[in-house]
Amino acid sequence: MHRRRRTALSVLAATLVAAPLLSACGNQAHPGAAAVVGGERIEVSAVQARAAQVRSAQESSPQAAELVNKSGQLSRAKLHGLIFGKVLDRAAEDAGVTVTRKEIQEMRRAGLAQQGGEKQFEAMMLQQRWVAPDQIDADIRQEVQLPKLARALGVDLGTPAGQQAVGEALAKASKALDIDVNPRFGTWDDQKMQLGDYRAPWITQRTEAAPEQPAGA
């Protein structure tokens, strides 16, 4: 599982701009929205709710101070994840890819076995990926979805050529969704699959993948 997860994350690479947590939206065209993706709104309140779930889990951890200190860009990370999830869904739909509950459960069981149990697995996801326990299945869904997208495209996600092809499919989906991000959160780059300039700390960058870098939670 670890090799597959690392490969997927290298393609899921995303960056975010350093800034304080936001409590209001400055996009006059879409008041209250952190972003509009494919005509669907991602509300600021939804971003904040996901960030709050992570903060709550962090504050319950014995390493609370360290975890909070290292996740100062939490709201942007969560917005990026929400946007990228919609992009990946669109690319998967275009390629005829679906993900079953069984596939998610199988990958989760593999993660539990690798980490030595539920608590250890949840602690790893919280520390390394800023994912709260209730958000893990959604995160794992993308880990299943991305390699399946590569296979549907007839490429190997573990190769530069495969990553290039997946990156192009994601960029095409991103453009089709006409993503409009509230300026207070930054701007979305369709080619790089990134929001601003902050590099998520849990992702290994592989510059040979995707149009300019491996695509992005």
Structural topology:
Layout: H1 2-11, E1 33-37, E2 40-43, H2 44-59, H3 64-69, H4 74-94, H5 101-115, H6 118-129, H7 136-152, H8 160-177, E3 180-181, E4 188-189, E5 194-195
Antiparallel strand pairs: 1-2, 1-3, 4-5
Order of helices and strands: HEEHHHHHHHEEE
Give the overall silhouette. globular
Please give the share of residues in helix. Answer: 40-55%
- Give the terminus-to-terminus CA distance: 17 Å
Radius of gyration: 17 Å
Report the β-strand fraction as a percent range. 5-15%
Mean pLDDT: 81
User: Going across the major beta sheet, what is the strand order?
Assistant: 2-1-3
What's the main sheet like? 3 strands, antiparallel
Low-confidence stretches: 3-7, 9-27, 198-217
Q: Total number of helical segments? A: 8
Query: What structural class do the secondary elements suggest?
Result: mainly alpha
| Number of strand elements | 5
Descriptive tags:
mainly alpha, disordered N terminus, 217 residues, two-stranded antiparallel ribbon, single chain, disordered C terminus
Overview of the structural elements:
This protein is mainly alpha-helical. Helix content is 53%, strand content 7%. It has 8 helices and 5 strands. The protein has a 3-stranded antiparallel beta sheet. Strand 1 and strand 2 form a beta hairpin. Helix 4 packs across helix 8 and helix 5 crosses helix 6.
